[in-house]
DNA sequence: ACCATATGTTGTCAACGTCTACTTCACGAT
DNA sequence: ATCGTGAAGTAGACGTTGACAACATATGGT
């Protein structure tokens, strides 16, 4: 009755991704090894190559998956048409910051095209898609008379960059322990009211 | 007259850092190998270990050096007491974005404490020092009546995060090619005036 | 003159990514 | 029914790397 292990795993690709994300969370991207993943899944060291051309391809897949999750979460929030725009913006910010805090290594991976000349086009596309979710909300806010006129894409970009900056600084320990959510709330107030005197 | 190579290199540490920064710029942090650096400097493969305990120590040193350069550049700008605050802020932003554009891989390294649990304390300290340079300028702006009241540290943090976010998104190719300087100028205007309607 | 120490060298090891050749297996055409 | 073809997994090898240990050489203080 010994159930012999089948020659084919059957679900390797998905399980590799899952194990990789765990490893990423626990030990960071640098410590992620294809061979270790293969061992963990009781599969030969060369098996992962059948699903991911090389190590970078696996990391790219993780990044894309991360962006996809983010995009979906954003969409759900944006579509709450009954909520005021500012409330939804707040929810977007909170969602992003929570994601960043729970997945710091993954977040770094998603935006880590640093020096590599040939950054994956697909990863970048996935990232742009996630960012694009916020543009419509800004436009909606303008239509509702809550947000001043101006290219909504530009406004959304600046806002996203601000939150993203807060998230990465927080992950890097440069915010002296202050919660990113608190900083972000200040940012929202500053951006909403402006910081100039008088006017 | 053959000048025999001396047993001791004499300046290995500094040259390692220089070569490492070149390699970082050209091929990215992942492709940086201690052995390759040793080869480049015509030194044995174990020589770098005498100056940097491990690979990460070298990368940390690079990051600290990067922050030091940034801090110095910031200080020079902040100390131009004759220039109006807003002009100096503009210069700070331009300086940071230029640094980011010229050293994308180094910038990534400087803030890349991602998943690694034991991020170098010294790197973080160097980063905080750089960020701290901007606080005084905000306070000065408040004293001059150009910037509204509020914790200057908080305002500076939000502003820095915004610019940092723009820089990293730009480096990641997520700004659809628009120059980071243009986005940052919009950000400054938005932050200065606020985006709320009416008020 | 001497020696402690910093700096470099050589040799070794385990781990890793990647490549090639081979095996197993599911499945559709015949 | 069977055949063969391609996808999925295995086994082994190669070259590179980071790290370590043992040894060699230079340097500077006493």
The count of helical stretches of chain A stands at: 8
Low-confidence stretches of chain A at least 5 residues in length (pLDDT < 50)? none
Q: What is the rounded Rg of chain A?
A: 20 Å
Could you tell me which chain pair has the largest interface and how many residues each side has? A-B, 59 and 60 residues
**Count of strand segments of chain A:** 0
N-to-C terminal Cα separation of chain A, in Å?
A: 82 Å
Protein name (chains A, B): TetR/AcrR family transcriptional regulator
Domain HTH tetR-type (chains A, B): 10-70
DNA-binding region (chains A, B): 33-52
Organism (chains A, B): Microbacterium panaciterrae
Give a summary of the structure in a few sentences.
Two copies of one chain form a homodimer. With 199 residues, chain A is mostly helical.
Descriptive account of the structure:
2 copies of one chain form a homodimer. The first copy, chain A, has 199 residues and is mainly α. Helix content of chain A is 65%, strand content 0%. Chain A has 8 helices and no strands. Chain A has helices spanning 12-27, 34-40, 55-78, 85-102, 104-110, 121-143, 152-171, 180-193. In chain A, α3 (55-78) packs parallel to α6 (121-143) and α4 runs antiparallel to α6 (121-143). The longest helix of chain A is centred in the middle third of the chain and has 24 residues, at 55-78. Chain A is elongated. Chains A and B meet through α1, α5, α6, α7 and α8 of A and α1, α5, α6, α7 and α8 of B. Chain A binds a DNA duplex (30 and 30 nucleotides) through α2.
């Amino acid at each position: 009755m010994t159930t012999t292990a089948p020659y084919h795993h059957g679900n390797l690709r998905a399980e590799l991704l899952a194990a990789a994300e765990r490893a990423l969370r626990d030990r960071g991207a640098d410590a992620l090894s294809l061979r270790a993943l293969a061992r963990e899944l009781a599969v030969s060291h060369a098996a992962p190559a059948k699903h991911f051309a090389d190590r970078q391809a696996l990391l790219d897949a993780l990044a894309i998956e991360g962006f996809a999750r983010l995009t979906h979460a954003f969409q759900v929030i944006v579509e709450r048409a009954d909520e005021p725009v500012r409330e939804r913006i707040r929810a977007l910010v909170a969602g992003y910051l929570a994601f960043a805090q729970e997945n710091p290594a993954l977040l770094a991976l998603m935006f880590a095209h640093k020096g590599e000349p040939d950054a994956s086009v697909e990863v970048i596309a996935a990232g742009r898609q996630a960012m694009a979710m916020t543009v419509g909300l800004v436009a909606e806010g303008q239509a509702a008379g809550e947000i001043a006129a101006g290219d909504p894409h530009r406004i959304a970009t600046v806002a996203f960059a601000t939150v993203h900056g807060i998230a990465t600084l927080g992950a890097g320990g440069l915010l002296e322990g202050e919660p990113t959510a608190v900083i972000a709330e200040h940012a929202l107030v500053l951006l909403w009211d402006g910081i100039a005197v008088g006017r």
